[in-house]
Specification:
By secondary structure, the chain is α/β, with parallel strands linked by helices. It has helices spanning 10-21, 33-40, 51-57, 68-73, 94-108, 128-136, 194-197, 223-227, and strands at 2-6, 25-30, 61-65, 76-79, 117-120, 142-151, 154-155, 165-175, 181-183. It has one domain (2-226): 3-Layer(aba) Sandwich (Rossmann fold), CATH 3.40.50. The chain contains eight helices and nine strands.
């Protein structure tokens, strides 16, 4: 299984390198050609601690200009493209639509995307992810929004460990009866929202389901599942 990271900026490059460090095979892409060339040469200009070191040590990560290879090769497509704030307080999500457009272009070129998971890690406006989902659902791509992740011993900064506990992951295929999506069950005590509602008081000793592989959480959440 390969994990794709589309948009290797401040957030994306860190996440991609931590996934690689955790043992995943990663393909990361960006539209900035010079930047990607530099990453391919294992060089980055950043003041983010340890990023240059992680990059220098990385072996199982490929860097690509443009998103085609990520879309073609990867089962999980994280997108962390820029969504800058606009003067009216909303977010400009046109870069995410650009990525969705790339997925559609890949489909037109014969790439089979059925069963791939598209995970939006960007900040978006309410309702955007539903629109992304509507656009991609006919092709069998599942859309997830900002899954919170933790592992024993640390919140968010847990990606050095190949064990990921995904504690609050939403999808939009079934209605909870109030027009909201139903959360995947990732905890054993039913308190799915705790980590998001009050991350300061997050207790790693509370009972979470554990996933040893990033793809496990998405297992069975394919187009067939959605239509069942
Ligand atoms: N940086 C943070 O601490 C932080 C925290 C929370 C949320 N976020 C959110 O995460 C997202 C990414 O933030 P960031 O700070 O990493 O932004 P960034 O501007 O540093 O990186 C975004 C990257 O996406 C690339 N990009 C733009 N369009 C693309 C496309 N169509 N295909 C591929 N790559 C493309 C850009 O070249 C850039 O390298 C934003 O939505 C932001 O709101 C960031």
């Amino acid at each position: 299984m390969k994990v794709g990271v589309i948009g290797a900026g401040r957030l994306g490059i860190c996440f991609a390198l931590l996934l690689e460090k955790a043992g995943y095979e990663v393909v990361a892409s960006d539209v900035r050609e010079d930047y990607i060339k530099s990453l391919q040469e294992r060089s980055i200009s950043t003041n983010e601690p340890e990023v240059q070191q992680l990059l220098s040590e990385s072996k199982n990560i490929a860097f690509k200009t443009g998103n085609f290879d990520v879309i073609k090769e990867c089962d999980i497509l994280y997108t962390l493209v820029a969504t800058p704030s606009l003067s009216d307080g909303s977010y400009d999500v046109s870069a995410v639509w650009g990525v969705i457009n790339d997925i559609q272009n890949a489909i037109n070129l014969g790439i089979d995307v059925k069963g791939k998971s598209f995970i939006v890690g960007c900040t978006t406006n309410p309702g955007d992810c539903e629109l992304f989902q509507k656009q991609l659902q006919p092709y069998g791509v599942d859309v997830f929004y900002n899954p919170s992740q933790t592992n024993p011993g640390g919140l968010y900064y847990g990606r050095f460990s190949p064990t990921l506990n995904l504690v609050d992951l939403f999808e939009d295929y079934s209605d909870n009866g109030q027009g909201r999506s139903v959360p995947l069950v990732t905890r054993l005590d039913g308190n799915e929202n705790d980590v998001v509602a009050n991350p300061v008081n997050f207790d790693v000793n509370k009972p979470y389901k554990q996933y040893d592989n990033l793809s496990d959480i998405f297992a069975g959440k394919t187009q067939d599942y959605m239509l069942a």
